[in-house]
Amino acid sequence: DQQVKQNSPSLSVQEGRISILNCDYTNSMFDYFLWYKKYPAEGPTFLISISSIKDKNEDGRFTVFLNKSAKHLSLHIVPSQPGDSAVYFCAASKLHDYKLSFGAGTTVTVRA
Amino acid sequence: AAGVIQSPRHLIKEKRETATLKCYPIPRHDTVYWYQQGPGQDPQFLISFYEKMQSDKGSIPDRFSAQQFSDYHSELNMSSLELGDSALYFCASSLGSGSSYNSPLHFGNGTRLTVT
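Predict the joint structure of the above. Result:
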């Protein structure tokens, strides 16, 4: 049962524009959400996280928005750069839980 | 900064053989997690250890076992390998019990296991 869903398997965006990645979750017990970026032949790299007490967290070019009532979060990358081309995974857990549930990933391609 | 180190990077085994995967967490991290990522799939949680004790268990087959040692490194032992065990195995580490806003999971580069 997929508790975290990324319904867009791929996204293509022009360099300099905004990339918006979406993620939905079904488990209302989740209160901690993360985004990871993954290049081929490498492990997921932590990007940014947000706890359920916030609705926005920003770190440089990356901003994560959380809408708890809709069980939806999104990652905004502004401006998009060629090095951002990778697979992005959304993940969720209960705080202090040991298990992260991952989405299926969205492949982002940034066009020059 | 030091990252999570996994060895080996690649491993080829035959059916029914055994395999041991090793994970060295980020220094001072006391929690280790193992994930399995099959082709075209998202990472699936297998098992975790906090302070050398098993802290949670996911979809780990009975043929697999793992432990965390006194130096906090962890080993995943896989026996009676099957073709379906072919996957990327990721180890992650964090500081403190479980996922935390102040210490998210950091992943290694994985071990690619191929069972023939």
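The first strand of chain A starts at residue 4 and ends at 5.
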